[in-house]
C-alpha cells in the first residue's frame, strides 16, 4: 500500500490526535502572532505541494494549538470520519476532489507533511461541515455591500470559533497557475474560507450556510479555494457552482477589473446569483428564490445567530440610509453590539463561543483590501489594519 493510500485509509489518525492532545508539547507560546494590529504574513512560490508544505511548516504550531483548544470536538470529528458512514463520505469527498482538483489534494498533503500532523486530521477539518461535525457553534460572518454610481465597497466581518483567536495568519501565494492571491487563513483549513483577493482583481469573502444534511459532492472549502485562481467572475461562478456540491455556501464575489459585485448562493441542489444595487447585506441564511427552497437549511442556527445579525444590519442601513457616505459609517454598523452575543460585532459570552476575528473593507475602485485585526469595535477605532493589494 502506498503511503498516501495508507494515510487516507484513516487507520492511524485517531491515535495521532489522541497523542497530540495528550502530549505536553504545549508550546502555545510558539504559535505565530505578530502585533496587535497585523496578522503574521507568509509569501510562497512553488508547486501546490510546496505551498501546503510551507504553510504547514510555518504555522504548524497554530494548527496544533487550535486542535488542542477544541479537544473534545476534534476527538468527535475523528470518530465520525472513521465510522462506517463517515468513512464512506470522507472517501467520496476525497475521490471527487482528486477528480476535479487534484492539485488541492497535493496542497493538503503538503500542509500535513509540513506541520507533522496526520493527513486524515487535516482532511477531516477541511470537510468538517460535510461530516456534520461543525463546532459547538458554527461560523458566522456578516457582509454589507454599498454600490453607488461607479463606486462599490464591500465590508465583511469574519466570525469564527474562539479557538482561532490570535491564531489566524495571512498568505500570499504564487501558484503554478500564474494567478497570485492573498488570503486570511484558518489554521488547519485549506486557504479560501477567509477574505481573499487575487492579482486578476477577483475578491471573495464567504458566509457559512448551516445544513442538517450533506450530499456526496465536492466539499465547500475546496470550491472556495479553487476559485481563488479564477481570472474573471465567469470563471469564479463556474468553479463555485461545479457539480456535484456537498454543502450549501454563500460567496461574496467581486471584480475590480469588471467593477462588479455578485452575491452567489449555492446548495447541493441549486444555485442563484444576484447583482444587487444600493445597499445590501447578507449573513448566514439563504435569501434567494431558487436556493431558499432547500429544505435541509439549519433553521435553529438561522433563527438564533444569523437572523439576529441580519436584522440589526438591515435596520441600520434603512435608518441611516441618507447619512451613510464614508467607509467608517459602514464599519461602525459592523461594530454594533445590538442583540449580543448574536450581534454584528461578536464577542464570546457564556456558552456562545463565536467572535469576530477580522473585518475586511474592499474598495473596488482602488482594487485593495483593508483588513482590520480582531473585534471591529476596537480595531476600527484604533486603526489596527493592514492594506492588501497587488
Give helix % range.
25-40%
Structural class: alpha+beta
The total domain count is: 2
Q: Any guess at the CATH architecture of the largest domain?
A: 4-Layer Sandwich
**CATH topology-level name of the largest domain:** Penicillin V Acylase, Chain A
Give the strand line-up of the largest sheet.
1-4-5-6-7-8-9-10
Q: Helical stretch count? A: 12
Average pLDDT: 91
Helix-strand topology string: HHEHHHHHEEEEEEHHEEEEHHEEHE
The geometry reads as globular
Notes on the structure:
The chain has 390 residues and is of the alpha+beta class. The protein folds into two domains: 3-26 and 50-126, no CATH class; 142-389, Penicillin V Acylase, Chain A (4-Layer Sandwich), CATH 3.60.60.10. An eight-stranded mixed β-sheet has the order 1-4-5-6-7-8-9-10, with helices on one face. A six-stranded antiparallel β-sheet has the order 11-2-3-12-13-14. It is built from twelve helices and 14 strands. It is globular. The model is unreliable at 1-11 and 24-30 (pLDDT under 50).
Attribute tags:
390 residues, alpha+beta, Penicillin V Acylase, Chain A, 8-stranded mixed sheet, 22% strand
Please write out the topology:
Blueprint: H1 3-8, H2 13-22, E1 41-45, H3 48-69, H4 71-81, H5 84-100, H6 102-115, H7 119-126, E2 142-148, E3 151-161, E4 169-174, E5 181-185, E6 196-198, E7 202-207, H8 220-226, H9 233-240, E8 249-255, E9 260-266, E10 271-274, E11 278-282, H10 299-319, H11 327-334, E12 354-363, E13 368-373, H12 376-382, E14 385-389
Helix pairs in contact: 2-4, 3-6, 4-7, 5-6, 6-7
